[in-house]
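Aim 2, interim progress: modelling of the magnesium ion-bound target.
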Amino acid sequence: MLDIAGLRKVYEGRGRTVEALRAIDLTVGEGELVCVVGPSGCGKTTLLKCVAGLLTPTGGQVRLAGRVVTGPPPGMAVVFQEYGRSLFPWMTVRQNVELPLREKRVPPGRRDLLVSSALASVGLSDAGSAHPWQLSGGMQQRVAIARAIAYEPQVLLMDEPFAAVDAQTRADLEDLLLALWRRLGITTVLVTHDIDEAVYLAQRVIVLSSAPTVVREDLRVDLPDERDQIVTRSLPRFAELRTHVYGHIRAAKAQ
Ligand code: ADP
Ligand code: MG
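Predicted structure of the complex, ligand included:
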């Protein structure tokens, strides 16, 4: 579904050049859930923005279902890190979720149906007429997720989507994401700085090196498919996998 080959990104500023990505090679199969981890500043957000067609790569390319990405592709939805800023405060929750569907020219009847079903699946059926600023951080993030799901993307990209909410909300949102992913089978790439979260959610964990950034490790998470916050996290294999990833990140930082 996604094929990233030799992806390189250099930011050129006045007198300052930052090589954010050296050469990223990564493929993500249809319906896979992949988590990307790496030291802070290693280029995770840059990678997602290149994949989303929001940044032009300096070298290499990204293909979505075989076609080279040159701008935001129609089949992709992104949930950003700063979700508070990605919702329009003057629009209601419903209008926020509906906006990309209007742009996609989905007919009104179908639009209503998609919005209602997406809001229901994130547990916000009653919040449709509220404005984002009337909601808690966790609820705002669920609105951002609902907006992405209502769009029915082929590929869902998420940049540290749960970083700004409290631990309990975070666990709930993780399980919400897993339930949606199981039901809809959307190819998902999620960036997180939380190693436990990556191992808990993913079928594969991609560990990036520090700059100049390449893929350091591509690890299959061989945990049972059914994940549970308590059961999964107390499995010996879970501990082994997280220790393994921690080791790679520590080595990447020391590099
Ligand atoms: P991460 O998300 O892993 O923390 P980023 O992708 O945000 O990393 O940043 C990678 C590197 O690129 C950092 O050194 C950062 O300072 C730099 N960078 C990010 N965005 C820009 C930009 N717009 N202009 C110049 N440098 C940038
Ligand atoms: Mg980032």
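The chain has eight helices and ten strands. Residues 44-45 surround magnesium ion (ligand 2) (CB under 6 Å).
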